[in-house]
Design goal:
- The protein has 145 residues and is an alpha+beta fold.
- The chain is built from three helices and eight strands, in the order αββββββββαα.
- Strands 1, 2, 3, 4, 5, 6, 7 and 8 form an eight-stranded antiparallel beta sheet that branches.
- Strand 6 and strand 7 form a beta hairpin.
- It is globular.
- The relative contact order is 0.19.
Length: 145
């Protein structure tokens, strides 16, 4: 192995060791007859006054093997209580990504499910439900009962 290749290999290995895997902690914060609303508690870090909360919408009913759901990045400005949608990703029954797009909606007053996210992200009103490491684990627990 040449000197340069050796240093590149060592550098890549050091980077792999030093870079933690993205942690997830999905907790249910709301629901209705059709949808479970979940939030990744590990995404609630404000940057320049804006919190990027990752929310998921999971069908409340269905077979535990159906991993269909979608996620949305919800941007929150805690100072004025406004929110706006961001990137939305949909996943099919096998859990594989099927679509990805950005909702360019304007900043506006938080209402509905966004109001719940505002309380979680801005007021530290964390949901009391059990967190799961993945949405698939949440689906297995909720529908596998």
């Amino acid at each position: 192995m040449s000197g340069i290749a050796k240093y590149l290999t060592i550098g890549a290995a050091a980077l792999a060791i030093a870079t933690p895997a993205a942690a997830e902690s999905w907790a249910q914060f709301s629901s209705n007859d059709q949808t479970l609303y979940v939030i990744d508690l590990d995404t609630l870090t404000p940057v320049d006054g804006i919190v990027s909360a990752h929310m998921g919408r999971v069908p409340a009913k269905g077979d535990a093997s159906d991993l269909s759901y979608d996620t949305e990045v919800v941007l929150m400005r805690c100072a004025d209580g406004q929110s706006k949608p961001g990137e939305i990703v949909t996943y099919g029954p096998d859990g594989a990504e099927t679509d990805r797009y950005t909702d360019e909606g304007p900043w506006g007053a938080s209402g509905g499910v966004y109001e719940s996210i505002k309380r979680i992200a801005c007021e530290n009103a964390l949901p009391a439900s059990t967190p799961y490491p993945t949405i698939a684990a949440l689906i297995a627990a909720k529908r596998g009962q």
